[in-house]
């Protein structure tokens, strides 16, 4: 039934679609378009591609799916090759800007203007893909991260939703004493751990200083020297020492951690808005609530920030079929596609008008409202940093959790990576 509903929403939308008054394309798209997609979004985009081809019979779209851990490596190699994808998924931040610096992707500003999606998509999401006055990606979803919690389990233990880090630690200790895993955590793919450091850095160090360090704008002798960076790592270690996590987190996959939560074997799971559909389709609907990462006492950052960031599509500068690639991107971010994304996939669209046309579930409404109330967003750490610094973080988190390095040692490695990157990039 969902497939039929989605088809009804998308079929008939032309390549440049009627996006809130934008002019409809006069000529259907033609030719082949190769799209590389992160596995979490592949199912949805295969449906988008099917409907695009129905609206454009002379076009063929091929979706190539890559697993999460392998995707970033694949696009580094693929985009630089002589046969890159025409369109590919990417995260906002340096992950997208590095392709712009090397002239490997198109400036989408004229396409956004001509197709109309530059006016219908949220300014914040567009700005996240903008640099030097140019637009390097088309955002299609806003993602955020929350603690998902088992409502019945917390209530049975007499626990309330923690609003501070110390309360979170206290809840962990209470649950652990009862033989309950407080937070299911799987860091085998490394990125879940970096999400903890993303929000801890913002709350402890503060968005002003992290902005200077992340962009390599601080002087070399000051880069990543704020004591808060070590404290942020130590707080993650404090969570582990308090028994917040399951054993061997670096050997557990994110998917297993999610399953541990929705099967009732853990009280909480730090998960993204993309997990709402996962929880619901695995029989956990209405059994869980969400809350943002709590405030950190003594932190220098704005405690009303949330961890969030848009994801989007980029077009290769070497694409052999740029018109069709641009038409597909326009279709993928059209209002009809945005409505289907919210209604069928339970994902948060970046077209605010699309959200008003769908009766969302209470948990979705809560996530959207929380994002609306936030005073700012901390973008995923591994997507905003230069790749070498991101790798130092990704590896360092595993080392701290394994007990093979101290927070001080890891921050020292990160600082040296930042100094090297600053020198290499001439900043």
């Amino acid at each position: 039934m969902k497939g039929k509903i989605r088809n009804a929403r998308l079929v008939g939308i032309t390549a440049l679609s009627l996006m809130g008054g934008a002019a409809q394309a006069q000529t259907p798209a033609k030719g082949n378009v190769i799209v590389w997609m992160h596995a979490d979004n592949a199912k949805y985009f295969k449906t988008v591609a099917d409907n695009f081809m129905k609206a454009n019979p002379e076009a063929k779209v091929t979706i190539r799916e890559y697993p999460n851990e392998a995707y970033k490596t694949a696009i580094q190699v693929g985009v630089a090759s002589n046969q890159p994808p025409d369109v590919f998924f990417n995260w906002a931040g340096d992950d997208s800007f590095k392709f712009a610096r090397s002239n490997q992707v198109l400036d989408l500003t004229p396409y956004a203007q001509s197709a109309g999606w530059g006016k219908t998509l949220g300014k914040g999401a567009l700005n996240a893909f903008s640099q030097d006055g140019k637009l390097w990606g088309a955002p299609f979803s806003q993602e955020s991260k929350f603690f998902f919690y088992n409502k019945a389990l917390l209530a049975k233990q007499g626990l309330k939703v923690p609003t501070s880090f110390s309360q979170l630690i206290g809840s962990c200790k209470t649950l652990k004493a009862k033989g309950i895993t407080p937070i299911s955590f799987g860091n085998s793919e490394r990125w879940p751990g970096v999400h903890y450091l993303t929000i801890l850095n913002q709350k402890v160090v503060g968005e002003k200083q992290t902005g200077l360090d992340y962009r390599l704008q601080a002087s070399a002798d000051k880069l990543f020297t704020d004591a808060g960076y070590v404290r942020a790592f130590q707080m993650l270690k404090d969570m582990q020492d308090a028994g917040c996590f399951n054993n061997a987190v670096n050997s557990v996959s994110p998917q297993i951690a999610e399953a541990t939560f929705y099967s009732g074997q853990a009280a909480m799971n730090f998960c993204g808005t993309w997990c709402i559909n996962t929880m619901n389709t695995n029989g956990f609907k209405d059994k869980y609530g969400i809350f943002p990462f709590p405030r950190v006492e003594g932190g220098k950052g704005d405690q009303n920030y949330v961890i969030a960031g848009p994801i989007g599509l980029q077009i290769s500068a070497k694409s052999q079929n740029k018109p069709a690639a641009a038409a597909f991107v326009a279709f993928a971010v059209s209002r009809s596609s945005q409505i289907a994304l919210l209604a069928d996939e339970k994902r948060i669209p970046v077209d605010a008008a699309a959200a008003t046309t769908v009766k969302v579930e209470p948990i979705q409404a809560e996530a959207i409202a929380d994002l609306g109330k936030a005073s700012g967003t901390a973008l995923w750490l591994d997507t905003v940093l230069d790749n070498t610094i991101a790798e130092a973080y990704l590896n360092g988190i595993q080392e701290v959790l394994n007990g093979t390095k101290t927070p001080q040692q890891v921050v020292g490695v990160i600082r040296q990576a930042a100094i090297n990157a600053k020198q290499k990039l001439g900043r």
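Confidence is low (pLDDT under 50) at residues 1-26. The first helix runs from residue 2 to 10.
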